[in-house]
Amino acid sequence: GGGVQQGLKQLPRQRKVPMKLFTLQCDYAQLSDIERLVQRFEGKVTDSQFQDRIALTLAVPYGQIDGFKKNLSDFSRGALSLIPLTP
Q1: Which parts pass through the membrane (predicted)?
Q2: Of 45, 35, 43, which is closest to residue 67 (Cα–Cα)?
Q3: How far is CA 45 from the centre of its chain?
Q4: Contact in structure between 21 and 59 (CB atoms under 8 Å)
Q5: Helix ranges restricted to H, the chain
Q6: What pLDDT, on the 0 to 100 scale, is given for residue 16?
Q7: Alpha-carbon distance 12 to 85, whole Å?
Q8: pLDDT in tens, 11-52
Q9: Domains of the chain listed by start with CATH number
Protein backbone atom coordinates (compact mmCIF):
# COMPACT_ATOMS: atom_id res chain seq x y z
CA GLY A 1 0.00 0.00 0.00
CA GLY A 2 2.82 2.54 -0.47
CA GLY A 3 1.55 3.67 -3.90
CA VAL A 4 -0.27 6.73 -2.54
CA GLN A 5 2.75 7.74 -0.42
CA GLN A 6 5.00 7.37 -3.46
CA GLY A 7 2.63 9.48 -5.56
CA LEU A 8 2.46 12.21 -2.91
CA LYS A 9 6.25 12.43 -2.74
CA GLN A 10 6.36 13.13 -6.47
CA LEU A 11 3.87 15.99 -6.36
CA PRO A 12 5.45 19.44 -6.56
CA ARG A 13 5.19 21.14 -3.20
CA GLN A 14 4.03 24.69 -2.84
CA ARG A 15 4.64 26.73 0.25
CA LYS A 16 1.57 28.29 1.78
CA VAL A 17 2.16 32.03 1.64
CA PRO A 18 0.12 34.10 4.12
CA MET A 19 -2.01 36.57 2.20
CA LYS A 20 -4.19 39.53 3.03
CA LEU A 21 -7.53 40.02 1.27
CA PHE A 22 -8.54 43.30 -0.34
CA THR A 23 -11.35 44.58 -2.50
CA LEU A 24 -10.75 46.89 -5.41
CA GLN A 25 -13.19 48.64 -7.75
CA CYS A 26 -11.91 49.24 -11.27
CA ASP A 27 -13.07 50.01 -14.79
CA TYR A 28 -13.22 47.34 -17.46
CA ALA A 29 -10.34 49.00 -19.34
CA GLN A 30 -8.07 48.58 -16.28
CA LEU A 31 -8.75 44.89 -15.64
CA SER A 32 -5.99 43.27 -17.71
CA ASP A 33 -3.33 45.62 -16.30
CA ILE A 34 -4.51 44.94 -12.75
CA GLU A 35 -4.46 41.18 -13.35
CA ARG A 36 -0.86 41.45 -14.60
CA LEU A 37 0.09 43.54 -11.57
CA VAL A 38 -1.49 40.98 -9.21
CA GLN A 39 0.50 38.17 -10.86
CA ARG A 40 3.73 40.17 -10.72
CA PHE A 41 3.33 40.50 -6.95
CA GLU A 42 2.45 36.79 -6.54
CA GLY A 43 -1.14 37.56 -5.62
CA LYS A 44 -4.43 36.07 -6.79
CA VAL A 45 -7.79 37.37 -7.94
CA THR A 46 -10.13 35.32 -5.76
CA ASP A 47 -13.43 36.81 -6.93
CA SER A 48 -14.77 39.25 -9.50
CA GLN A 49 -18.20 40.84 -9.82
CA PHE A 50 -18.99 42.52 -13.13
CA GLN A 51 -21.47 45.40 -13.03
CA ASP A 52 -21.01 48.97 -14.27
CA ARG A 53 -17.53 48.67 -12.74
CA ILE A 54 -15.65 45.56 -11.67
CA ALA A 55 -15.37 44.63 -8.00
CA LEU A 56 -12.34 42.41 -7.45
CA THR A 57 -11.34 40.48 -4.38
CA LEU A 58 -7.57 40.12 -4.29
CA ALA A 59 -5.24 38.08 -2.12
CA VAL A 60 -1.79 39.68 -1.84
CA PRO A 61 1.14 38.14 0.08
CA TYR A 62 1.91 40.16 3.23
CA GLY A 63 5.49 40.77 2.08
CA GLN A 64 4.29 42.22 -1.23
CA ILE A 65 1.53 44.56 -0.03
CA ASP A 66 3.55 47.81 0.09
CA GLY A 67 5.05 47.28 -3.36
CA PHE A 68 1.69 46.27 -4.80
CA LYS A 69 -0.04 49.35 -3.35
CA LYS A 70 2.67 51.65 -4.71
CA ASN A 71 2.53 50.11 -8.19
CA LEU A 72 -1.28 50.22 -8.19
CA SER A 73 -1.22 53.88 -7.18
CA ASP A 74 1.39 54.72 -9.84
CA PHE A 75 -0.55 52.79 -12.51
CA SER A 76 -3.87 54.47 -11.68
CA ARG A 77 -2.37 57.88 -10.82
CA GLY A 78 -3.86 57.50 -7.34
CA ALA A 79 -7.39 56.77 -8.59
CA LEU A 80 -7.55 53.15 -7.35
CA SER A 81 -7.25 52.11 -3.74
CA LEU A 82 -7.24 48.77 -1.98
CA ILE A 83 -9.76 48.22 0.79
CA PRO A 84 -8.64 45.59 3.32
CA LEU A 85 -11.14 42.80 4.02
CA THR A 86 -9.12 41.28 6.84
CA PRO A 87 -7.53 43.13 9.75
Answers
A1: none
A2: 43
A3: 5
A4: yes
A5: 3-10, 31-40, 65-76
A6: 83
A7: 31
A8: 666 678 899 999 999 999 999 999 999 999 999 999 999 999
A9: 15-84 (3.30.70.240)
